[in-house]
Each structure stands twice: as structure tokens, then as C-alpha cells.
From TrEMBL:
Residues 55-344 form the Beta-lactamase-related domain. Coiled coil: none annotated. Gene3D superfamilies: DD-peptidase/beta-lactamase superfamily (3.40.710.10). This is Beta-lactamase family protein. PANTHER family: BETA-LACTAMASE-RELATED, BETA-LACTAMASE-RELATED DOMAIN-CONTAINING PROTEIN. It comes from the Bacteria.
Length: 526
């Protein structure tokens, strides 16, 4: 059991008691003061937005009241955490500080002498470890995106700074990468190996941490059409990509959040100093100015942690990776998802928790009926990207079999073959980069391998009118992303194709519009 005194995170709650380690006890929601109706409201709100949710875990008073997964994800799936990785780096630095390996006021260049140019800018030379932790550095955004150097760490010292450190907040993923390199330099191990020993094992985590690597030492064209700074699955010369490249299970992320909620204590042992955890999860810098008067604006930032409304803090990653922690209410909510297309998944999920769950929590009811507990545990079908109450989406067109050719276009699309029956279909794209085949289920998800990348994916098709076929592809694994395709069938026999991609640093060829020649017509430029 983990106990921490009230008030450490700026709240007003009674002492927080948490159990860390697995298995976490499942209980009826009301047994820990979580109304079933509030869980239903939260899930209903998520469903109404068709969010591509992968997991949802809700823990109160150290016990699970919900643990849901959406296919193909499950409790043992290592999930790409994107910028949640930064919070892992923040805690790993804390272990180094506690051990006396580094100090927060150390100048960061003192650890990277061979990478620092002789004429280093004074603002770069002035940056401390704490500046990187709080993202109040001398840089306005990630340095590796401003150069063609595949050594992401070196770019931090060679790219010209834009302001003195310590004055302004600027979200800077390259700072987290440098922190990972710092951990490796002072410990002699990768950040994930160090955290495995210091935290993951004591927490009783079921699966080892994994990390994507930086592309240090690789040729500039290593990523093909993707940016040279893209992280890679393995590279002995690289460091763990602590900016966006850590993978773990949602359960283990929940354990990590509980550890932070408990102020660094596990089973009566103070693994990480409460002072550091308090500093890391408190507001160290403001994140404004921001437009508008929204009370959720400018929550503040700690040591690679975000502050949130209602005296909370959070780990946040692109597309719906979240660990929301509310000490006042002894509550942890973890989500994983991939909703990069809308760009507001984190906001939608957070506000659903703050509106539907947080204000409706009650005192525990020891006599709570557990007959509904099972509804909030298990695996559900993957979320459909459309309203499944409209059966016409599957009936408008029973069969299509068409082949068309294209003039030069931004998609590099030369020709297209589409064949679709009552429950499945096949799309063949003849492109400048080769022939690509895509299978899809009609009104149902089908597992496929996506295009030239070879990544695992789910694919579905549906008709949203009698002449418009929609295709949705959701890529999973080490890289998350999605592609939406719209095929419009015109009366003259031509097809207009629109592709929209939502992914960081890949799928570049799947963005644009092309219209084929009408049936039995000469080329448009003849």
C-alpha cells in the first residue's frame, strides 16, 4: 500500500491511499464512489465523437472500476505513447538527481563537450538541466527539424537559439531527447533500461519498457520519403527517443501514474524523493499566452508533466495518449488512442473526464451492487468511423467493379481498380512508386498489411451516399496513423479520389486529390 499526506500536489483531499502492482483489484464503481451513470455518460460522449479509442482505465482509491480495450488492442499490447514518453524522462532524471549523478542547475553543455561547437552561443551555453525539464530553453521548437543533421542531440547545441533560457515556455521535443542522452551518459545505460531497474521492476510492471531510437549515424535518406529525423525501431548509435518513442502497456502507464500520485512511494519505500515528484508535477512555468479566456488555458508545466484544472497533473501524448491524475479525488484515468485526424482527442477525452466523471464522484459505498461491474471490463470491437444506426450505408451499392486511368497528379496515381461486393472489397492503386493492393471489409473492419510500409492495419469501407465510397485505414504497431479515402463515382464514368493522411513523419504520399478520365475518353491533355 502507498500512502501520502494531503496537499502535496496543491489539492485539499484527505490522505491518498493507492495500491501499486498487479493485479489491481476490480470493484463495483460505486464501491469507490464512481457512479455507474457517470461512466456511461463518459463512454457515451466518447462514442458520439467516434474517437478511435484503444484503451480506457479508471482507477479510484487504488482499485480498477473500468478497464476497456478496443480491438485489436488488449492488456498485453505495448502501445506507442508519443509525448507521454517525456514524463518518463522527467522521472528518470529525478532518479539521477536523487543519486547525485546530476544537479538541476548543471549546464547541459557540460555533459556533451564533443558535440558543442567552439563558438557555442551564450544562450545555448546558459541552458541548465532544469531549463530542459520545464521546456523554458533557448529554442523555440525542436532543433532537429531545423537542420538536416541526423544526430538529434548534436542539433541542440549547433542550431542558433532564439531567446535566453528560462524566460519563455516553448514545447520542444528535442529537449526530451537530450535528457534521454544525458541519462545514458551518466548511468551508462539507456533511459528505458535505467527506468526498468529503478522503477518498472519495483512497480511490478508486467512488460518491459521499449523505445524507438534516434537516427544518429544513419544516412540522411534512411527514412525514404519520410523526414530524416524520424525515429527508427533499432539503431545502436541512437538514444531512446524520450520525446515520443516509448512503448508500454496501458496498465503499466497506470502504475506509473499511481506512483506519481503517491509521491514516489512504493510498498512503504520512498523510491523517488517526494520533493522531486512534487516539483515535477507542479506548475514550474506558465505555458501562455494563449488566445481566449478559456479557464483550461495556461495550465502550466512541470518537469515534463502538464498541470491540469482541478489541481491535477497529466502525461499527454499525441492522438489520445493520456494519464490524468487528480490527487484531491484519488483518481487516475488512462487512455490510449489514435485520433490524429481531428487533432483534439486529448482535449475531448480530458473534458469528458472533467465534465462527466470528476464532479460526480461520491463517497465509497461498501454495499454497492457489483452486478454491472463486468460491463466496464473486457475487449470491444474497434470503433466504427460512422454512425452504425444508418443501415443504408451498406445497401446503397451492392456491387462495383471499375478500372480507370489518371492524368499526372499530386498523388502519383496512374490507374485504379476497385471491386466491392456486399461485405468486402479490394482497391488496387497503380502509382509512380509501384502497385499497391488494399483489401477492406464493407461495414466491418478487416485486418490487412498497409501498402508499401508493411505495417499492420485495420480497413473498412462504407457508402455515405449512392455515389461516394469511404475507406478508412488505421495503422497500428510501432507507428500509429490513419488514411481516409473518398471515392466519388461520377455519371460520366470518372472517379475522383481524395486521400487524407493523419500521421507524424510518414504516409506523405497519401495526401491529395486526383480525378480520372471519363469512361471511353481520350487523355485530358490530348
Amino acid at each position: 500500500m502507498i500512502t501520502i499526506e494531503p496537499g502535496w500536489a496543491g489539492g485539499k483531499a484527505d490522505a491518498v491511499t493507492q495500491t501499486v502492482g498487479m493485479p489491481l483489484e476490480r470493484v463495483a464503481p460505486e464501491a469507490v464512489g464512481v457512479p455507474v451513470r457517470s461512466l456511461d455518460a463518459l463512454l457515451g460522449r466518447v462514442r458520439s465523437r467516434h474517437l478511435n479509442l484503444h484503451s480506457l482505465l479508471i482507477i479510484r482509491h487504488g482499485r480498477l472500476v473500468a478497464e476497456l480495450y478496443w480491438q485489436p488492442y488488449g492488456p498485453d499490447t505495448l502501445h506507442r505513447m508519443y509525448s507521454v514518453s517525456k514524463s518518463f524522462a522527467g522521472v528518470a532524471i529525478g532518479f539521477c538527481v536523487d543519486a547525485g549523478m546530476i544537479r538541476l542547475d548543471d549546464k547541459i553543455i557540460s555533459y556533451f563537450g564533443e558535440l558543442v561547437p567552439d563558438d557555442v552561443h551564450p544562450w545555448t551555453a546558459a541552458m541548465t538541466v532544469e531549463h530542459l525539464l520545464t521546456m523554458s530553453t533557448a529554442h523555440g521548437f525542436s532543433t532537429y527539424k531545423q537542420t538536416e543533421d541526423t544526430d538529434l542531440v548534436r542539433t541542440y547545441f549547433t542550431v542558433p537559439p532564439t531567446r535566453p533560457p528560462g524566460r519563455l515556455f516553448a514545447y520542444d521535443t528535442s529537449a526530451s531527447v537530450v535528457l534521454s542522452a544525458l541519462i545514458e551518459r551518466v548511468t551508462g545505460r539507456s533511459m528505458t533500461a535505467f527506468l526498468q531497474e529503478q522503477l518498472w521492476t519495483p512497480l511490478g510492471c508486467e512488460h518491459p519498457l521499449r523505445a524507438m531510437k534516434t537516427p544518429t549515424g544513419l544516412p540522411r535518406d534512411h527514412a525514404g520519403s519520410s523526414p530524416w529525423w524520424r525515429e527508427v525501431e533499432d539503431n545502436p548509435a541512437g538514444v531512446d527517443h524520450a520525446g515520443s518513442g516509448i512503448l508500454c502497456t496501458p496498465r503499466d502507464l497506470a502504475r506509473f501514474a499511481l506512483f506519481c500520485l503517491a509521491g514516489g512511494r512504493v510498498d512503504g519505500r520512498q523510491l523517488l524523493s517526494a520533493e522531486y515528484v512534487r516539483a515535477a508535477t507542479s506548475r514550474r512555468v506558465g505555458t501562455g499566452p494563449r488566445l481566449g479566456a478559456d479557464p483550461y488555458d495556461d495550465p502550466g508545466y512541470g518537469y515534463q508533466f502538464w498541470r491540469t484544472p482541478y489541481y491535477g497533473f497529466a502525461c499527454q501524448g499525441m492522438g489520445g495518449q493520456l494519464a490524468l491524475v487528480h490527487p484531491d479525488d484519488d483518481l487516475v484515468v488512462v487512455t490510449t488512442a489514435d485520433d490524429q485526424l481531428t487533432g483534439d482527442a486529448n482535449d475531448t477525452l480530458s473534458r469528458a473526464v472533467w465534465d462527466e466523471l470528476l464532479p460526480k464522484l461520491t463517497d465509497p459505498d461498501s454495499a454497492a451492487d457489483d452486478h454491472e461491474t463486468g460491463r466496464f471490463f473486457g475487449q470491444l470491437p474497434a470503433v466504427l468511423p460512422y454512425d452504425d444506426t444508418d443501415s443504408d450505408r451498406l445497401r446503397w451499392v451492392e456491387q462495383v467493379d471499375r478500372s480507370v486511368e489518371f492524368e499526372p497528379n499530386t498523388l502519383g496515381l496512374r490507374a485504379l481498380d476497385i471491386a466491392s461486393g456486399p461485405d468486402a472489397g479490394r482497391l488496387k492503386l497503380i502509382t509512380d512508386r509501384g502497385d499497391l493492393d488494399f483489401c477492406f471489409g464493407l461495414g466491418r473492419w478487416q485486418s490487412i498489411t498497409f501498402g508499401e510500409y508493411g505495417y499492420p492495419a485495420l480497413a473498412i469501407g462504407w457508402w455515405d451516399s449512392a455515389d461516394r465510397l469511404r475507406l478508412s485505414f488505421r495503422i497500428h504497431g510501432n507507428y500509429l496513423g490513419s488514411v481516409e479515402m473518398i471515392l466519388v463515382f461520377a455519371p460520366d464514368g470518372s472517379i475522383t479520389v481524395q486521400m487524407i493522411k493523419a500521421a507524424e513523419a510518414f504516409l506523405e504520399h497519401y495526401q491529395g486529390i486526383a480525378t480520372s478520365r471519363p469512361a471511353d475518353s481520350p487523355p485530358m491533355n490530348d
